[in-house]
Amino acid sequence: PTQLENLAHQTALRLYPMAYFKSLRNRMDEGTGDDDVGQGWTFDEILDTEHTAVAVNDAIFGVQEDVFGEDAVDPYADRVMRPAWACLIADTLEAMADSDDAENGDKDAYEASVSVPDDVDDATVFVGGEKRGTTGADSEVTFDLTANETQRVVVVADGYDRIDTDRYFSEQDADHHVSLAPATDRTIGVYDSSGDPLADAEVNIWNDDELVYAETDADGTVDLDALDVDVGDDVTVEVFAEGYDGSSESLEADGSAAVVLTPADEPAADDLEEEAGLTEYFDDPDVAETVCEEVR
């Protein structure tokens, strides 16, 4: 129609673009649409009930505006429909992302490991930019991988030089041993959750009641020989860096030490929704909590 004259026209205006988009996405899918053999479409239903309800409710407000004028539209229309459309879009994108993962053929995980010499205690192992764990009595860290590919391996430990190397991991070659060289200097190295050095981290060294303050250099280290800290002193080291939780540990200043910082807690989902303005349209917090569940 050339004019939107009734609820059917208003509803069609909202459903047609959605239907055409989902149909086009399904036509681009690989396979036959047979879920039993893992070849299902991205969208099993082009116009499922929950998404159609969002379009129809929005169409009702459109009819109100056409018939009674913009000033007569329900004052809660905007509060209700914006989050509903946002959740519908998020639901659609999630279905597309899940379909892409399936088409890319995600592999089953296999167990891999990185081990260090038996005389190296509490070495922290990073693989592929992720902290995988700290060695224990068996001097190794095990973790899961899905791809057969070269991974960056970083290992840090008190008293040893940091190792940064590449190793090829596969189901047939999943276990790797890394040798570490004893450190020859007295330093405190500060590293992030990927094993990379953290520059400009604040380091407080408490020696009895005296405080020695320093900042890490571009290599993420503080040279104890350049500070008023004698060999063998028992010190407490506090480390702070923006975006990371602080660290405090006691050690003997007779060699090198490695400090790995943990990223500060990420904002909770509720905080992110509030920051994005999702809940500002609702007077009742319970409504804000359940609207996405109702749409989905």
Automatic annotation (TrEMBL):
Fetch the InterPro entries from UniProt: CarboxyPept-like_regulatory
* Descriptive protein name: Uncharacterized protein
